Amino acid sequence: MAIQAVRGMKDLLPTEAAKWRFIEGAAREVFAAFGFGEIRVPVLERTELFARSIGEATDIVEKEMYTFSDRSGDSLTLRPEATAGVLRAYIENKLHGQPGPHKLFTIGPMFRHERPQKGRLRQFHQLDVEVLDDAGPLVDAELLVMLTQLLTRLGLRNVKLMVNSLGCPDCRPNFRAALIDFLDAKRESLCEDCRRRLDVNPLRVLDCKSEACQQAVEGAPSIQDHLCPGCRQHFDELRRLLALAGVDHAVNPRLVRGLDYYVRTTFEAVAGDLGAQNAVAGGGRYDGLVERLGGPAQACIGFGAGIERLALLIDDRPEWRAGPDLFLAAIGPQARDWAFAQAQDLRAHGVWVEMSGEDKSLKAQMRRADKLGAARVLVLGESELAAGTANVKDMLGQGEQRPLSLSDLGRALFPRHYNQ
RNA sequence: GUGGCUGUAGCUCAGUUGGUUAGAGCGCCAGGUUGUGGCCCUGGAGGCCGUGGGUUCGAGUCCCAUCAGCCACCCCA
Question: Buried-most residue among A69, A208, A223, A315 (CB within 10 A)?
Answer without folding.
Answer: A223
